[in-house]
Amino acid sequence: MEAPFLLLILVMSSSLVQNTVELATFSSRLIHRFSKEYKEVRVSRGGDVNDTWLPEKRSKEYYQILVSSDLKRQKLKLGPHYQLLFPSQGSKTMSLGNDFGWLHYTWIDIGTPRVSFMVALDSGSDLFWVPCDCVQCAPLSASHYSSLDRDLNEYSPSQSSTSKQLSCSHRLCDMGLNCTNSKQSCPYSINYYTESTSSSGLLVEDIIHLASGGDDTLNTSVKAPVIIGCGMKQSGGYLDGVAPDGLMGLGLQEISVPSFLAKAGLIQNSFSMCFNEDDSGRIFFGDQGPATQQSAPFLKLNGNYTTYIVGVEASCVGTSCLKQSSFSALVDSGTSFTFLPDDVFEMIAEEFDTQVNASRSSFEGYFWKYCYKTSSQDLPKVPSLRLIFPQNNSFMVHNPVFMIYGIQGAIGFCLAIQPADGDIGTIGRKYSRNCHGKCRCSLNLQLALRKSYI
User: Which keywords has UniProt assigned to this entry (predicted)?
Assistant: First the structure.
């Protein structure tokens, strides 16, 4: 990474001394970032000569850039400015049921003047996009959705005074090579896991409106610049009620909102989400969790830290820990249920079936394999599921099931696990809310979302 002002070049020279002992002496030559020599060095290392703009020495632009770099360095030295940040309309999240794909949503304000968007929260992706200058978008009228009491909004960069074009030459423009020239707007196109589901458009920079503080009543307003996908064209599930007003990717990559906030020195490089049994929840940017919180290291995928993948060393059902039950899994708030590699799924499910005190059954319309009848309106005692991580850290799922209801109330329950298609599993939301009613407990998702590696 380039230093803000100076490029340090180390030159090594050596000389022979008595007893033929070779000693190395090191010297350094400092090259100013705005010097012609720096430009030559950058070009020699593969940089774009047209992208290596130098302000005129002692000009207004020259001093503006120096001051801007100074401020960024001060933020890094002094630590994050805020302990917690959350959307200006509050930290609450909600799930609106089948109409909206069972995802969790929050309201976020964008631009100047601010416009509100109800965005889905997804730790399995990175880009934050909203419907924008629409060519093909989901319906935004409340009349299309049974659980909405107000219309959804469409973003237009031309209507926001704080919106800025993101050019094809920007380092975060992944599709820059497809541009005819470096100054045109950066396009984006993302395909998601669900078949034929995608979003495409142009990248822009604008501000999101956040608040700081320990709760939703005593807070300070914060305007944070981020990169936003101007989603002109959506397809698949995004036209059928899933994330009709946009999606906030919360992944590890630089383009995600948590990464932008951390790089700006506003928060620690972390965030937390949790979900209650009633499908309400909270999101906090910069949340480090309690000091007693257990943690797990992220794993690399194809040699890089690209998403929230953790390694499970062993799986226990009740008091029985199963041999050869290790696996890797993606922690994904955009997935409802938990999916495990097929061999691990069968071991856990069979052990659960052995221990549970209920009769195996099937229910019309439910394709889960391990389901059971119940004669009580309350969930009977079921064995817990414990996932063991490195350094003997563990994650306990106290009730790894979901209830099935009929006309008269509860009629059964199913083990909330499905077999995965491949070797990597997914830990979904249903296993991320076993907090015994305390939403801020160690955030079951935060087990993986804290960006610190063991």
Answer: Aspartyl protease, Hydrolase, Protease, Signal
